[in-house]
Amino acid sequence: MNNRVFSDRHLNKINQKLLLLGSNDNRALPYLTLKTVLIFIPCVAAMFVSIYGLILAPFIFIFLYFYTDYIVIYREIRKRKIKLEKDGVLFFKVLYFNYINNRNLKVALKITTNNINNDLSKEFKKALDETNLGKSLYDALNDLEKRIPSNNINAIITNINEAILLGNDSEELLKKQIYYLELNEINFQDKMISKIPIKVAIAFIFIILPILLVILSLKI
User: Fold this and answer.
1) Could you say which of 75, 133, 174, 219 is the most buried, measured as most Cβ atoms within 10 Å of its Cβ?
2) pTM above 0.90, yes or no
3) Quick one: average pLDDT of 45-61?
4) CB-side neighbour CA atoms (13 Å) of 103
């Protein structure tokens, strides 16, 4: 019955987005079903509470339907992207040194995932565990890219995969990618710092200034 409500195309799209949150489960159908039920509640309430409820309900439904996806999925994907790119600086540095010592990417990945405990390392460990079940490392890393919302990290994974497939040396590759991730992290921090004056100004205009005006009016 639920499959008649949501098209396969829509379910696949949501599943792809949920994968970027690190989920391997087929959670699109229960997510969409629960979301729709929860959105209906304020819509029905609006119809009973207000005489304009019948007019407002469709607008409430549309707004909440898309805003829920933003809050639950898209905003969390962006947060995870930032977190994974931050994790990537340490992870790929350790991978680089392990690769220099072993000259074998798969061995270097195993050692690195055993010694680094962050979200990115867990994703690589998950890919390595899949190789123990018969999947090739190439296919496991391809599937890993579907769970990573960062184009920068996916570019590194693609390059690692090509190096494994072609048997190329990865020392210079990893060194360049680490430099690029570090530069990207510095640029991100600079961007956050540059936004501080704007946030302070907004806080002053919408919070502090009205309070001051209220205080001044009371004194008058």
Assistant:
1) 174
2) no
3) 78
4) 3
By CB neighbour count within 10 A (0-12 exposed, 13-18 middle, 19+ buried), where does 11 fall?
A: middle
- CA 207 to the chain's CA centroid: 31
The domains of the chain are located at 2-77, 82-189
Q: What is the CA radius of gyration of the chain?
A: 24
Of 69, 58, 91, the C-alpha closest to 21 is: 69
Q: Cβ(99)–Cβ(105) under 8 Å?
A: yes
Q: Quick check: 14 and 31 in contact, CB under 8 A?
A: yes
Q: How far apart are the first and last CA of the chain?
A: 66
Helix axis angle for 105-115 and 151-166, nearest 10°, is: 140
* DSSP letter assigned to residue 179: H
Computed over every residue of the chain, the mean pLDDT equals 80
Compute the distance between CA of residue 30 and CA of residue 28 in angstroms, rounded to an integer.
6
Could you tell me the CA-to-CA distances from 176 to 46, 56, 92, 166 in Å, in that order? 57, 55, 11, 19
The predicted-structure confidence for 90-143, as pLDDT tens digits, reads as follows 999 999 999 999 888 889 999 999 999 999 999 999 999 999 998 999 999 999
Q: What is the DSSP letter of 149?
A: -
Q: Please name the amino acid found at residue 79.
A: K
3-class state of residue 144 by DSSP: helix
Residue 64 and residue 37 in contact, taking contact as beta carbons nearer than 8 Å: no
Residue 69's alpha-carbon distances to 2, 64, 196, in angstroms, are 19, 9, 28
In this structure, which topology does domain 82-189 adopt according to CATH?
Receptor-associated Protein (1.20.81)
